[in-house]
Amino acid sequence: MDLKDKLKRLLDSPYRDFLGEDDLQNEGELLTLRQRLELIYRRSRQEQGLAGKVSAPKRIEELVQGRVEETPYGQCFVREIDYSPGYCHGEVSLSTLLEVTPESCCKLTGDERFNQWQHSKAIFVDTETTGLSGGTGTFIFMIGLGYFRGEHFHLWQFFARDYSEEMAILHLVESLTKPFQFLVTFNGKQFDLPLLQTRYRLSRMDTILHQLSHFDLIYPSRRIWRLRLENCRLSTLERSLLGVVRRGDVPGEEIPQVYFDYLRSQNATLIARVFYHNAQDILSLVGLMATICLLYHKPFSQGEWCGEDFYSLGRLFHQLGEAEKGSRCYLQALNSGIPAHLVPSAFKALSFIYKKNREWDKALKAWDDLLVLGEREFDLFPYEEIAKYWEHQRHDYTRATEVVERALLHIHRAKEELLPDRYAAMERALEYRLRRLRLRVQGKRWY
DNA sequence: GAGGAACACTGGATAATGGA
DNA sequence: TCCATTATCCAGTGTTCCTC
């Protein structure tokens, strides 16, 4: 959409009512987009009876406790907050993070450098920017950075009061980052880190941020809570898992506009709320990381997790090679109750684990449960597995043949419910297996 | 040793997703 | 709106194990 289209859309929008006849006659001729926006803003204020009541713009120094810091690259505004041990973000104490183990971090990130994990070596980073596009036109105006100093959690917020102060905040962040080994973000691999690297490059400055071992919390969060929550945004996760309720926050999508308004008006009233937003995000990183890692470390001993969470955890453990924990989670999921469409998958996953461990009785039980579920919606899987068991483990070809015959009978009955291609493929596979088994029953070679 | 079944692994295609 | 990352699915290939 080019500028002309945007202007057209604006003129077609409800804001059109704020324009007078004279303004509309000049449409598309003399007024620049900026002038038009000013006009809309002025008329909007008139409509609201606010014209003439504009109070003096409030400077950031008046609204946010902080200081102006001098750097070789100029000035910027800095705020520091210290959170004492036991400070709770929502329902989670920040010091819970001290219980996070290197093994959990290692497994969840797949990065062996997390073997060296120490909470005191980690920084939690979140940026506020002028947009999402991530190109050279997106500017970072605030960087929040938190870390543990002993049991205290210390938060720094670096704010560029205009574009010229970006280099100063980048410089301060870089000097503060140097002692750390681990970086924790939410969607930082995709958003914060590439953007920071671009800004450092454009400023002809170096950064070690990309060399740190990076724990991006978005990926384990999605793996664990994607099924239960409507989405896996940080705001949803913190509300649902940490019990955080934000008051007076600025929604993320409004932040660029708040900054642009601040640059134009020099009124920092809303920017103070961006400081709050950024601080909340950083605290949520701490709470979320603690929650994920402790859940991974001790899935059955903390929190009130529901069936879907245990199902997702089962998959996570299974994928990460921890079959025993995986099977316990699947069982817990089935006991706690999960949506009907997940039940067959849980039994299948359980049967895979039992089969691999050669726990045949348990595997057979899982396949039998699947057969019962298959009365409602046909599934070939349990029949095939039971037939394989009798053929390959017990060498009872007659029993295996009976199972395949039952499966064939069942798919013939279920023909109407199945897609023609799917039905034909199932029938082919079963008849092939049946031919082979019948030859084996007769003691003949099948190849 | 040949042949087949099952399984593990890999790569490609596709879809979903979140950041401000 | 963009787009890197991840998950998922599927097909193809290689390996292992077992039977005869």
Please describe the structure with a list of short key phrases separated by commas or semicolons.
single chain, alpha+beta, Serine Threonine Protein Phosphatase 5, Tetratricopeptide repeat, seven-stranded mixed β-sheet, two-stranded antiparallel ribbon, 51% helix, disordered N terminus, DNA-binding
Describe the protein.
This protein is α+β, with helices and mostly antiparallel strands. It folds into three domains: 3-47, no CATH class; 61-297, 2-Layer Sandwich (Nucleotidyltransferase, domain 5), CATH 3.30.420; 309-441, Tetratricopeptide repeat domain (Serine Threonine Protein Phosphatase 5, Tetratricopeptide repeat, Alpha Horseshoe). It is 51% helix and 12% strand. It contains 18 helices and nine strands. It has helices at 3-12, 21-25, 33-47, 60-63, 102-109, 166-177, 192-202, 218-225, 234-242, 255-265, 269-297, 307-319, 323-336, 343-356, 360-373, 381-393, 397-413, 420-441; strands at 67-71, 74-83, 88-89, 92-93, 122-129, 140-149, 152-159, 182-185, 213-216. A seven-stranded mixed sheet has the order 1-2-7-6-5-8-9, with helices on both faces. Strands 3-4 form a two-stranded antiparallel sheet. Helix 13 (323-336) packs antiparallel against helix 14 (343-356). The longest helix has 29 residues, at 269-297. The chain is elongated and about 95 Å long. The N and C termini lie far apart (65 Å). The model is unreliable at 1-37 and 47-52 (pLDDT under 50). It binds a DNA duplex (20 and 20 nucleotides) through residues 127-135, 138, 186-192, 194-195, 216, 218-219, 222-223, 226, 231-234, 251-256, 259, 388, 391-392, 395, 436, 445-447.
